[in-house]
Amino acid sequence: MTNASHSSVQQFKTFIHEHPLLIKKVREGELNLQETYEKYVLLGEEDPTWEKYKKNREEKTEENNSTSQLYQKLWKHIEHLDVNQVENHINDLNGAIGNILTLIEQFKQFRNNQMSSSQSDHFFNRPKD
User: Fewest beta carbons within 10 Å, which of 1, 65, 66, 119?
Assistant: First the structure.
């Protein structure tokens, strides 16, 4: 008897992996796993109530089609891309980044000069005994 129940549990595991929406409903708390297992044992795998929990193959092909359409659009835009224009934009960005780095370096030097001058001021402005 233990082997029979063990094999039905194994069959249920296989069944539930073939019905990903069923797993989702159990995880969301809409269905109870124990009750679902009992329904499975009573109704069997071939019952029409399980169809709504299967992921349709049509949905998968639609996802694949939408992905391929996205790639086609992307390639179409890349084909019409002017490489010289992209190169000019990259050079402009490179120049802007260089200017920002120069500005940061100047700010650091200014800050270091201020720090050193304020430290030297403190050194000479010691209170007298």
Answer: 1
Statement: residue 57 has pLDDT above 50: no
Conformation bin of residue 55: beta by default, left when phi > 0, alpha when psi is -120 to 50: beta
Q: Where are the alpha helices (DSSP H) in the chain?
A: 2-17, 20-28, 33-43, 57-79, 83-124
Q: Look-up: residue for tokens 């399980």?
A: 50
Going 55 to 56 to 57 to 59, the CA torsion angle's sign is negative
Torsion of CA 44, 47, 52, 55, to 10 degrees: 60
What is the per-residue pLDDT across 96-116, written as a single tens digit (0 to 9) for each? 999 999 999 999 999 988 887
Is residue 19 within 8 A of residue 50, CB to CB? The reply is: yes
Decide if pLDDT at 56 tops 70: no
CA dist 50 → 7, 9, 25, 56, 59 (Å): 20, 17, 12, 12, 17
Please determine, for residue 69, whether its predicted confidence score (pLDDT) is greater than 80: yes
Token duo for residue 126: 């010691």
